[in-house]
């Protein structure tokens, strides 16, 4: 081999060694730097920081119904339309999860997340059930929502907002749309509940179990066949065993078989302390066991709406199944209606198909508002 070739080979090997060494050191440094929860949260917080002069980034307590409740207001231009997310669960507010899906929304909307009373950042570790449930009624939640919209209209200088009700939050959203249409551009229901939720959930889950030949699921579900809707709501073993199998058949998060990842998301929320994360989970449990708040047949409110109504629903959702939501959607009357189906989603399409969900917001919701604000040219 020529001397020049030998020298080149040694030079190349030396460069390769230096590259691999520096890469290893860099990766080790990076691995070490995010070992702590606080480090990971710091990265997420910096990534999501609103940097535009027209923007708004507020985390504050607002007194609603005499109780301070945490509210997040975020957007890159506060002249954009206001979108209020009404959480479900109960006990499942989104301030602690919004970091995982909301950032693109903030280019087009001023997004408001509300941790409702006794939940999320408002929850207190170790609160007993009686104290937790005090004044936790549908009427109280609807009144709180009204007060919040009134506050936002004044705080942000907007005549109208978009109300988006998620899951059980859809009961609050429908009541709000009925009672304060003059305050709303439109109502959007995600995983919209309406009537006979438990029966529809049970029927579809049993149907899937039979189709899959899952003898264990069928054996566990069959004894519940004769239960009434009210019994399915009141008896926790019936309710939660049905949901256990619904999760198995992709009825919660499509492709993931349950809620475990969802429940981990608040642990990386910049808005939540360690105590908030623990209390959030406690509140979610307390407000979902032996709690019939909001279990109302929304058809009792009548079919007529004065504002546009949109439903965003996952094809695989079982709480409620898509056909249950469609029945209610087709029954209601509104100046404009649209039902958007997400084909690879269950109950949380904004996390399961975030790109398609965002596109649906821009295509179907944004045109119903005053439109996205323009930026002033600064250079």
Topology:
Layout: H1 3-33, H2 37-48, E1 56-64, E2 67-75, E3 82-86, E4 110-114, H3 129-133, H4 138-156, E5 161-166, H5 169-179, E6 184-190, H6 197-212, H7 215-221, H8 229-234, H9 236-248, H10 260-264, H11 274-286, E7 309-314, H12 322-331, E8 337-342, H13 349-352, H14 354-365
Helix pairs in contact: 4-5, 6-7, 6-9
GO molecular function: hydrolase activity
InterPro entries: AB_hydrolase_1, AB_hydrolase_fold, AB_hydrolase_sf
Domain AB hydrolase-1: 81-354
Keywords:
2 domains; single chain; 379 residues; eight-stranded mixed sheet; Rossmann fold; 14 helices; disordered N terminus
What does it look like?
The protein has 379 residues and is of the alpha/beta class. The chain has 2 domains: 45-194 and 252-368, Rossmann fold; 198-248, no CATH class. Helices cover 43% and strands 14% of the residues. The chain has helices spanning 3-33, 37-48, 129-133, 138-156, 169-179, 197-212, 215-221, 229-234, 236-248, 260-264, 274-286, 322-331, 349-352, 354-365; strands spanning 56-64, 67-75, 82-86, 110-114, 161-166, 184-190, 309-314, 337-342. It has an 8-stranded mixed sheet, with helices on both faces. Helix 4 (138-156) crosses helix 5 (169-179).
Summary of the model, kept short:
GO terms for molecular function: hydrolase activity. The chain has 379 residues and is of the alpha/beta class. 43% of the residues lie in helices and 14% in strands.
In CATH, the topology of the largest domain is named: Rossmann fold
Question: Gyration radius, to the nearest Å?
Answer: 24 Å
Biggest β-sheet description: 8 strands, mixed
Classification by helices and strands: alpha/beta
How many domains make up the 3D coordinates?
2
Lateral arrangement of strands in the main beta sheet: 1-2-4-3-5-6-7-8
**CATH class of the largest domain, anyone?**
Alpha Beta
N-to-C SSE string, H for helix and E for strand: HHEEEEHHEHEHHHHHHEHEHH
CATH 2nd-level architecture of the largest domain: 3-Layer(aba) Sandwich
Q: Termini separation (Å)?
A: 61 Å
The 3D shape can be described as: globular
Mean pLDDT: 89
CATH superfamily of the largest domain: Alpha/Beta hydrolase fold, catalytic domain
Could you estimate the helical fraction of the residues in percent? Answer: 40-55%
Counted by DSSP, the helix tally is: 14
Strand content: 5-15%
Please count the beta strands (DSSP E, at least 2 residues each): 8
User: Ranges with pLDDT <50 over ≥5 residues?
Assistant: 1-33
InterPro entries: AB_hydrolase_1 (IPR000073), AB_hydrolase_fold (IPR029058), AB_hydrolase_sf (IPR050266)
Protein name: Alpha/beta hydrolase
GO molecular function: hydrolase activity
Domain AB hydrolase-1: 81-354
């Amino acid at each position: 081999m020529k001397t020049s070739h030998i020298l080149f080979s040694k030079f190349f090997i030396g460069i390769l060694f230096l590259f691999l060494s520096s890469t290893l050191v860099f990766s080790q440094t990076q691995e070490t730097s995010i070992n702590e929860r606080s480090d990971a949260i710091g990265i997420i917080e910096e990534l999501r920081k609103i940097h535009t002069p027209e923007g708004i980034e507020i985390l504050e307590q607002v007194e609603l119904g005499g109780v301070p409740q945490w509210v997040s207001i975020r957007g890159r231009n506060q002249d954009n339309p206001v979108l209020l997310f009404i959480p479900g669960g109960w006990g499942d507010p989104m301030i602690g999860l919004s970091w995982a899906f909301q950032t693109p929304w903030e280019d087009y909307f001023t997004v408001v997340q509300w941790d409702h009373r006794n939940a999320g950042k408002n929850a207190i570790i170790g609160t007993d059930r009686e104290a937790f449930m005090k004044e936790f009624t549908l009427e109280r939640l609807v009144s709180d929502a009204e007060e919040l919209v009134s506050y936002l209209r004044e705080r942000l200088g907007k005549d109208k907002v978009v109300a988006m009700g998620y899951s059980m939050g859809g009961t609050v959203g429908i009541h709000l749309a009925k009672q304060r249409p003059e305050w709303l551009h439109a109502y959007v229901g995600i995983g919209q509940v309406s009537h006979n939720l438990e029966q529809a959930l049970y029927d579809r889950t049993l149907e899937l179990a039979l189709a899959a030949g899952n003898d264990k699921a069928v054996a566990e579900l069959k004894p519940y066949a004769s239960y009434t809707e009210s019994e399915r709501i009141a008896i926790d073993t019936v309710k939660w065993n049905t949901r256990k199998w619904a999760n198995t058949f992709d009825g919660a998060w499509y492709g993931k078989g349950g809620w475990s990842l969802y429940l981990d998301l608040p642990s990386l929320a910049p808005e939540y302390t360690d105590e908030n994360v623990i209390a959030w989970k406690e509140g979610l449990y307390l407000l979902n066991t032996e709690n019939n708040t909001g279990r109302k047949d929304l058809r009792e409110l009548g079919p007529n709406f004065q504002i546009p109504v949109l439903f965003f629903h996952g094809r695989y959702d079982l709480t409620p199944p898509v056909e249950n939501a469609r029945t209610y959607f087709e029954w209601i009357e509104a100046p404009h209606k649209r039902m958007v189906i997400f084909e690879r989603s269950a109950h949380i399409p904004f996390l399961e198909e975030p790109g398609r969900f965002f596109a649906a917001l821009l295509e179907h919701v944004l045109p119903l508002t005053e439109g996205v604000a323009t930026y002033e040219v600064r250079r």
